[in-house]
Amino acid sequence: MKIINKAEIVNLLEQEGIISNPLGFRHSNGLLKKDMNKKINEIAGFCEQILKIINKYNKKKEIVFLECSCGKSYLSFVLSYIFEKEFNTKPFFFGVDTNDELIRRCEKIRADLDYENMIFKHGRTIDFNTDKKVDVVIALHACNTATDEAIAKGIEVGARYIMVVPCCQGQLRSQLKDHHPLTTVTQFGLLRSKFADILTDALRSQFLLGNGYYVELLEIVPPKLTPKNMLISARKTKNTSKRSLEGYHQLNNIFNTNFSLQDYLSEQPLNDDQACAC
Ligand SMILES: C[S@@+](CC[C@H](N)C(=O)[O-])C[C@H]1O[C@@H](n2cnc3c(N)ncnc32)[C@H](O)[C@@H]1O
Known about the structure:
The protein is α/β, with parallel strands linked by helices. The chain has a domain at about 1-140: Rossmann fold. The protein is built from nine helices and seven strands; from the N terminus they run αααβαβαββαβααββα. Strands 3-2-1-4-5-7-6 form a seven-stranded mixed β-sheet, sandwiched between helices. β2 (about 90-95), α5 (about 100-115) and β3 (about 120) form a beta-alpha-beta unit. α3 packs across α4 (about 75-85) and α8 runs antiparallel to α9 (about 245-255). The model is unreliable at about 265-278 (pLDDT under 50). The protein binds S-adenosylmethionine.
C-alpha cells in the first residue's frame, strides 16, 4: 500500500530513521524530539495535500517543485523520499531561502542522502530564476510577505499548482484602523489582528483567482495544533476569458487597504499561450 495520507506520513516520519535522522527529528539516542511533533504533523498534513494533487499528474514527466522560504527544506526532503520509495519517481526540487546558513545545511543533507534531484539557492523568492519549467510552487510558513513572493513567483513562472500555508502577515493590521465599514469590529486590537489575517488570505485568494487559478482553502492540521494551519491551494485553469483582478481591487477598496501582492507582479492579464493545457 502506498503511503499517501497524513497518518501514514506521520508514522513514516516517526519510524523511518533514513529520513528523520538527517532532518534532525531525533536525539542522538534515537528518540524522537518532543518539540518536533508539531512540525512533523504540519509536514505530513501539507505533504498529504500535495500527494493528492500529484496523484492526478502524469508521473512519466519530471515534476519540478519550487519550495519557497524552504528553511531546512523538510517538505522537499520528505516528498523526495516518499516519491522515490512509494511511487518510484524522482521529481526535481528547488529550494530558496534568504538564510545562507540554512541553505548550506540543506546542501549538506542533500549530499549525505545522495539526492541529485535537488538544488538549493540562497536569496529572495522573488529573485529566483531557473531555465526549468516549475510545475508546483510550495511554501510552508514563509514569514510575512515571503508568502506573497511565493504566490507572485508561482504566477510569474506559470506554475500549474501554487500551494502555500502562510505564516504571520502584519501588513494590514495597522491599515485597518479607520475609513472602512467594519471599524466597529476592528477598533478592538485582538479582533483587528484576526480580521487582518482573514482579509490578507482573502486578498491572496482573490489575486490567484484573478490570475486564472482555481482556489481552495483547507486546514492541514487541526487549529489546536497551530492557528497557522490554512493551506491556500491554487490550480491553474484553462479558462482565461474571465480573468480579472476586480475581486481583489474591490476588497482592497472596501477596506481602504493597500495590499502589496500586485507590487511583485505586473498586472498584465495572462494570455492564452500561458494557459495550462491540463
Ligand atoms: C518560519 S521559517 C519557515 C521555514 C520552513 N519553510 C519550515 O516550515 O520549517 C521562514 C523562512 O523564510 C525565510 N525567508 C524570509 N523571507 C524570505 C524571502 N523573501 N525569500 C525567501 N526566504 C525568505 C527565512 O529565512 C526562514 O527560513
